[in-house]
Amino acid sequence: MIFSANYQCEWLEELPQPEGVRHLYFPGATSVGGADGVLIQVEPKSYPAWIGTFAYGTLSPKGITKVFSMPDPNCLCVVARGQGYIVPAAEPTKYQDLAFHPILDVRIVPKQGLIVFANFTELLAYDASGIRWRTKRLAWDSLKITEVTDDIIRGEFWDIRSEQMSSFIVDLRTGDHQDGAEFT
């Protein structure tokens, strides 16, 4: 975990026996049941542990699967085959679906206090308060991050108009960008 966290997480291969720990299915944060997905046990400081099954995304087989600490030390982010969930560790039923699909790349920028998500065409950044910025569409498709510094994200994509690789640069403070595909 890059950011400090007021919880601990463990990736589980199967449900522990005997259970005895609250088990929630996402989306929905329901104990009734749900779809297959990533199984994570979360142990918030000063609150009861719980287990979450986070449903896999269905939009792209290239979607990543990973757990991230967030700039807010009380929240974690679970990405399951491109479907993202931001969950307050002590209050998991107050989670939010990350309405940004599919998540194909995630970059942490500690100096800016950001976690940046990438899909096929855009970037979305969260800080400790929530969404800091979302870019306009940067690419026709197949956006690829090539470099991350403390101040910028540089990337490339296949430009269908010129039939060659094109690039973009995004300012991490504002989400403003230079270059990229032009959409009217």
Write up what this structure looks like:
This protein is mainly beta. It folds into two domains: 1-95, no CATH class; 104-184. The protein is built from no helices and 16 strands. The chain has strands at 7-11, 22-26, 37-44, 50-55, 66-69, 75-80, 83-88, 96-98, 105-109, 114-118, 123-127, 130-134, 144-148, 152-159, 164-171, 177-179. The protein has a four-stranded mixed beta sheet, with no helix packed on it. A four-stranded antiparallel beta sheet has the order 5-6-7-8, with no helix packed on it. The protein starts with 6 loop residues before the first strand and ends in a 5-residue tail after the last strand. The mean pLDDT is 92.
SSE string:
EEEEEEEEEEEEEEEE
Q: How many DSSP helices?
A: 0
Structural class: mainly beta
Distance between the termini: 40 Å
Strand fraction: over 45%
Query: How many E strands?
Result: 16
Sum up the overall morphology in one term: elongated
Determine Rg (CA atoms, Å): 18 Å
Overall structural domain count? 2
Spatial ordering of strands, largest sheet: 1-3-4-2
Mean pLDDT: 92
- Give start-end ranges of low-pLDDT stretches: none
Q: Percentage of helical residues?
A: under 10%
Main sheet makeup = 4 strands, mixed
Write the layout of secondary structure elements.
Layout: E1 7-11, E2 22-26, E3 37-44, E4 50-55, E5 66-69, E6 75-80, E7 83-88, E8 96-98, E9 105-109, E10 114-118, E11 123-127, E12 130-134, E13 144-148, E14 152-159, E15 164-171, E16 177-179
Parallel strand pairs: 2-4
Antiparallel strand pairs: 1-3, 3-4, 5-6, 6-7, 7-8, 9-10, 10-11, 11-12, 13-14, 14-15, 15-16
